[in-house]
Amino acid sequence: MPKVLGTVPEAVTDPILIEIFGLNQHFLRAVQAAGSDGEVTTLTGVPAAKGVARGIARVLSNADELHRVQPGEVLVCESTSPNWTPAFAKIAACVCGGGTLSHAAIVGREYGVPTVTAVGLATVAISDGDEIEVDGTNGTVTVFRKADAQAKPAEVGS
User: Fold this and answer.
1) Is 26 a catalytic residue?
2) Active-site option among 90, 103, 109, 145
3) Host domain of residue 36
């Protein structure tokens, strides 16, 4: 299901939509960039758990797929809930939607796993198997695809 329907608004002011669902200015800019047919290689979200990690992205749509996550990989998902918690013991980093009060943000801080939240387009812009770098201190996610490893990443949402 899409996060928004219709015209992308200029701003979101509802604190629930911002803090829990991560629908902030970064998200709105990323939606606009994705609609322009430009390939997104740098995503900006909300820094949720400090640190930097690089690894292979494992894009999951639900907890039933958690068995696919290998040690050292980066979990990319829409959101997490308590049944996702054991994965934080083996992942290198986490990228997801949601805000600073989301489950992933809290567990990322508890486990010391670099986490960036409010990256609402993460599961669209990042492919399963891409190598990505997660900067949980600054809230950025950089995608290094094999085909464009030499290309300079384009900035989105800065």
Assistant:
1) no
2) 103
3) 15-147
